[in-house]
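Ops channel
N.P.: pipeline sanity check, posting one input/output pair.
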């Protein structure tokens, strides 16, 4: 993995620090899992054989249901210490090692349903000190060792249903003193002895012993002071022996189910009398009882507190007034799934407190007259054979709020059938073959809030068909044969918020058809036949007046597989639209202006179309978009996202398209992206996708779902290989590493230059001029002998002395030929070239040194060239004449170099006042002296060194 870091840091150790702490290496893209925003890991149905190791430690919930895990090892969960919920339903777990959950001290819910555990043993649940709910339904558990629950002191819910337990033992409650719900249905328990479960009072509220074929139920102590629900249904046919020493032991039971218990009449009466005496039982289920049903009903209804009574699946064909005459306190009666064909008119006359009556799944052919004599609030007559409704079927039922008539062959309605249902809130009429409403809702049911007419055969809705339903909020018309709406069809539905018109045959929505639905928030028009000739703007957009609409479904309109068009202003008026479903429409194009009218869209589903290319500016008007689904649309590129500026997009689904390369700028433009679905695409496994592969593995914000299963389709030799297994390191230029090397080199170079400038500046200058000297020699080695005896280097401020003293003496008196820059330099030639030619064209160089000379740039250049000639030729060619005393520390490094070369030819004019003739004589001797090798020199003065320096220095 390449180094990560910054070009601003020079040293490698800093890069390693950044790598370790700022850029952790753990990948956010998981192998077959996804992380939701509430830190839940979803890993279901992924064929895991072992517990996945790459789940982040921050995850609080893991769903690993429907996999193939067979063993939980002690190291499997050590990396997820913050779990609150773990679901391992439908795996093949047969073994859980001791201490597997030792670090799961926060876990509250553990679900191990539908696995292969045979034994609960010591240490299996160690560490689960805060577990509240443990579910072990549908395993093969036969044995529960005594210490297995010793850590579960806070357990509230334990479900061991559908296992192979034969006996109850006190292990359930010994270590779980706060257990409230104990479910042990469908085991092999034949006896219940209270002393087996506990020897002292418990906190159990729910005890489920159903489907165990109990032969004995013995309660010898009051261990259930808080028990409210007892389920004993489906006992064995030989009967149950009921032994409760004190009926007060079950005094707080509120809900009892003894359905299917095949006991003797005396035995069942004994059970019922136990609860009748306590006067606490309110909910009784007496289903699947064929033995003396009337007697048992009478026995049950002696309980004055009984308010809900279920007597389903008992084969009752006729109900008369005698059947329920003692049930005067009932509030809810369930008679479903019997074989009722007739109910006498006075069957419910004694049930004066009845408010819920359920008679679903029977054989009634009409609404029983008996229901009109009740004061019920809810009536369920669904799944009967009622073939028509009469005007007086619900006469005077003004208290009725919920009426369920679905799955009856009603065919049609009448305008008078609901005339008295002034307080009706819910009316369910789905699957009833209704083809006409006949004005049933034009004047009735003013308080109706939910009306379901799903899967009927309605073809036309008349003008004002729902005009009385000004309180209606939900209207479900799915699965009818409606083609279009007349103006005013929805007149009166001023409160409607949800309208479902899915799976009809609607071709168009005419002008004003939806204009009365000002409060509508959800509209489902999916699976209809809406289509337009072109994308050109239309004069009357169908949703122009639905400014409050939040969700619109116009998916699957092209059921005939014809090319579909939506006008570019189709969505005009939907200023508050948040969710749009437009998938499955065979769209080949979407006009760029389509979303100009929907600035608040958060979710767009465009999948399953034929949009090979999407306009660059299509999504630009919807900057609040958070979820975009464009799978199965044959997209060839994602470049349209570059121009969309979708900075709030969190979810992008683009699976099963035809693009093969994902460009870096596209992904980087989606700064808020959290979930990316790309399954089923044809990926190119070469350097074109190198960046994408690296990004998938290393980015810490975006999950690329199922990325580890992406396969290569190109080049042919890699077809079928997993995309993330391809090595593309050779494709990438590691810019971080290059920055690191470049920065390090720059720092080293800076240090080297600083060191050189401070300590070796003049050495470099020497080298430079040495090179110039070498080049000059090479260039002029064949030229004739020196043109001048000496080149005089001086500052303009010293020109008076040179012209007044030096020149007359050396040229006029002694006959030397001197070179002076103001007289002998060639005009037009570069100054440095004139200086070099003059120095190398003279046998000697006389430097007239003064303070002004040392400060002059050109004089400095002249003495440099002369010094380098001295250094190059190793001959005595340099004569220094000091016009004034200059301290050593003020001399330029060039003069110190002269001293380093051990030259001692120095003349001082300032000290020649007493002996001027001697000064000129020494100067003449210096000029006459041949260019001796260095070290063979003549002592010209008594000064051993430059003026200002004592001989002993």
């Amino acid at each position: 993995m390449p180094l990560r870091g910054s070009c601003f840091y020079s040293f490698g150790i800093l890069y390693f620090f950044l790598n370790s702490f700022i850029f952790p290496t753990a990948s956010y893209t998981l192998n077959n899992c996804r992380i939701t925003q509430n830190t839940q890991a979803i890993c279901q149905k992924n064929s895991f054989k072992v517990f996945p190791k790459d789940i982040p430690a921050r995850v609080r919930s893991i769903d690993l249901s429907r996999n193939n895990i067979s063993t939980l090892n002690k190291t499997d969960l050590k990396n997820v210490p913050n779990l609150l919920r773990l679901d391992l339903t439908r795996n093949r777990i047969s073994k859980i090692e001791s201490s597997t959950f030792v670090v799961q001290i926060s876990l509250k819910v553990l679900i191990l349903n539908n696995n292969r555990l045979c034994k609960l043993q010591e240490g299996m649940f160690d560490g689960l000190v805060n577990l509240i709910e443990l579910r072990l339904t549908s395993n093969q558990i036969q044995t529960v060792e005594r210490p297995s629950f010793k850590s579960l002191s806070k357990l509230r819910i334990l479900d061991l249903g559908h296992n192979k337990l034969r006996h109850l033992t006190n292990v359930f409650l010994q270590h779980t003193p706060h257990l409230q719900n104990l479910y042990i249905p469908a085991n092999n328990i034949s006896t219940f002895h209270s002393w087996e479960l506990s020897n002292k009072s418990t906190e159990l509220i729910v005890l489920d012993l159903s489907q165990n074929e109990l032969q004995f139920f013995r309660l010898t102590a009051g261990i259930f002071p808080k028990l409210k629900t007892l389920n004993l249904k489906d006992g064995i046919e030989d009967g149950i022996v009921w032994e409760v020493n004190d009926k007060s032991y079950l005094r707080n039971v509120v809900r009892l189910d003894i359905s299917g218990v095949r006991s003797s009449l005396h035995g069942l009466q004994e059970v019922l009398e136990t609860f009748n005496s306590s006067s606490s039982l309110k909910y009784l289920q007496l289903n699947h009882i064929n033995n003396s049903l009337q007697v048992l009903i009478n026995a049950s209804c002696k309980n004055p507190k009984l308010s809900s009574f279920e007597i389903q699946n008992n084969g009752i064909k006729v109900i008369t007034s005698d059947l329920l005459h003692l049930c005067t306190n009932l509030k809810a009666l369930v008679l479903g799934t019997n074989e009722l064909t007739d109910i006498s008119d006075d069957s419910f006359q004694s049930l004066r407190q009845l408010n819920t009556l359920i008679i679903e799944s029977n054989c009634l052919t009409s609404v029983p007259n008996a229901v009109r004599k009740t004061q019920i609030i809810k009536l369920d007559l669904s799944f009967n054979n009622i073939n028509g409704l009469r005007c007086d079927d619900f006469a005077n039922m003004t208290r009725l709020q919920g009426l369920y008539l679905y799955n009856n062959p009603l065919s049609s309605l009448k305008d008078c059938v609901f005339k008295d249902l002034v307080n009706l809130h819910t009316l369910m009429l789905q699957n009833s073959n209704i083809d006409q409403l006949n004005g049933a809702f034009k004047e009735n049911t003013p308080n109706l809030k939910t009306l379901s007419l799903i899967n009927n055969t309605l073809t036309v809705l008349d003008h004002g068909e729902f005009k009385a339903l000004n309180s209606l909020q939900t209207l479900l018309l799915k699965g009818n044969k409606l083609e279009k709406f007349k103006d005013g069809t929805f007149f009166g539905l001023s409160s409607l918020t949800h309208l479902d018109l899915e799976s009809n045959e609607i071709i168009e929505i005419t002008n004003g058809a939806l204009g009365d639905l000002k409060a509508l928030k959800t509209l489902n028009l999916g699976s209809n036949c809406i289509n337009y000739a072109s994308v050109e703007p239309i004069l009357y957009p169908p949703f122009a007046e639905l400014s409050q609409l939040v969700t619109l479904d116009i998916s699957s309109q092209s059921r005939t597989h014809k090319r579909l068009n939506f006008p570019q202003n189709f969505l005009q008026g939907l200023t508050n639209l948040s969710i749009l479903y437009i998938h499955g429409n065979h769209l080949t194009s979407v006009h760029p202006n389509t979303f100009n009218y929907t600035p608040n869209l958060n979710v767009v589903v465009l999948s399953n179309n034929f949009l090979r290319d999407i306009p660059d500016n299509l999504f630009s008007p919807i900057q609040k978009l958070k979820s975009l689904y464009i799978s199965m649309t044959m997209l060839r590129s994602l470049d349209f996202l570059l121009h969309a500026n979708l900075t709030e997009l969190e979810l992008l689904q683009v699976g099963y398209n035809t693009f093969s390369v994902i460009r870096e700028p596209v992904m980087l433009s989606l700064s808020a992206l959290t979930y990316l679905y790309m399954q089923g695409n044809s990926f190119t496994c070469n350097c074109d996708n190198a960046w994408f592969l690296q990004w998938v593995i290393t980015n810490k914000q975006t999950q690329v779902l199922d990325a580890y299963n992406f396969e290569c389709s190109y080049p042919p030799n890699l077809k079928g290989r997993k995309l993330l297994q391809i090595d593309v390191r050779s494709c990438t230029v590691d810019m971080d590493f290059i920055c690191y090397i470049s920065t390090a080199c720059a720092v080293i170079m800076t240090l080297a230059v600083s060191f050189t400038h401070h300590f070796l500046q003049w050495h470099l200058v020497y080298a430079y001029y040495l090179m110039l000297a070498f080049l000059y020699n090479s260039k002029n080695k064949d030229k004739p002998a020196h043109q001048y005896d000496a080149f005089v280097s001086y500052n303009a401020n010293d020109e008076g002395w040179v012209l007044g003293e030096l020149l007359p003496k050396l040229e006029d008196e002694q006959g030397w030929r001197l070179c002076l820059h103001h007289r002998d330099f060639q005009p037009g030639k570069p100054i440095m070239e004139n200086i070099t030619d003059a120095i190398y064209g003279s046998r000697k160089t006389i430097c007239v040194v003064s303070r002004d000379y040392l400060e002059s740039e050109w004089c400095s250049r002249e003495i440099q060239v002369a010094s380098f000639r001295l250094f190059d030729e190793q001959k005595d060619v340099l004569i220094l004449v000091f016009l004034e005393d200059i301290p050593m520390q003020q001399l330029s490094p060039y003069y110190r170099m002269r001293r380093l070369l051990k030259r001692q030819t120095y003349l001082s004019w300032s000290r020649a006042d007493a002996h001027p003739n001697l000064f000129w004589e020494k100067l003449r001797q210096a000029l006459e002296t041949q260019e001796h090798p260095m070290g063979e020199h003549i002592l010209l003065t008594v000064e051993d060194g430059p003026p200002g320096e004592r001989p002993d220095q």
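N.P.: looks fine end to end. The chain is about 20% helix and 15% strand.
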